Amino acid sequence: MSTQIFTDDTIKIDIEPLSFEVEQLGPLGNKTITPPVKLEVNSQGMSLAYAKKNKQPVTFSSVDWGALRELKNDLRKNGRFSYYGIFRSKLAETKMVIRLRVKGGPSEWERLACIFDRLPPGACGRMCPACAGPVIDNVCRNCGKSFTGQQRMRGLKFLGSGVVIGTVGIALTASSYNSSSGAITVFYGLMILGLGLIVGGLISLIFGVRT
Description:
The protein is of the alpha+beta class. The protein has helices at about 75-80, 105-115, 145-175, 190-205, and strands at about 20-25, 35-40, 45-50, 60-65, 70-75, 80-90, 95-100, 125, 135, 140. The protein starts with 17 loop residues before the first strand and ends with a helix.
């Protein structure tokens, strides 16, 4: 498990390697149709692998404890947890929220929950947009930047870009009008892109308001 998602201090937990049977969950907590998944845990971190029949397991995600971010631990109650990590496929590596349910019932849930109990607060903190460090009490432990401040700045940039691109799309559409034939070319792509950026900017601004 040499692949790290983010640069951070090395954290080790004094445990023997453990293995858990898990299943992937979708964004709404629904079970996804995938091959059986095995979670491997050791002193340095954890990894996920597809356990294909009569084939060597294929690791598709791994993270060191010091790089773990946004861990949401609901193991003791529902046997579920999620974290922000890398998902590797044949085409690309994608940073995303990985949601899992541990099989085997409460005894297995407790076994893994005890390990998560030993992680530092940064594992449950948000990921800093600037340096990927852990955000604790709205401030990145690594670079000292405000999380909400960065979200607001990102939102303003998205809003500005969306307005400019959307305006260009409307202007090009208006200038393409042919009065003699009544034909007009609508630049849907630019307008949709502009609208998407505006929506993304508004969402970032909403999350940038500290509650």
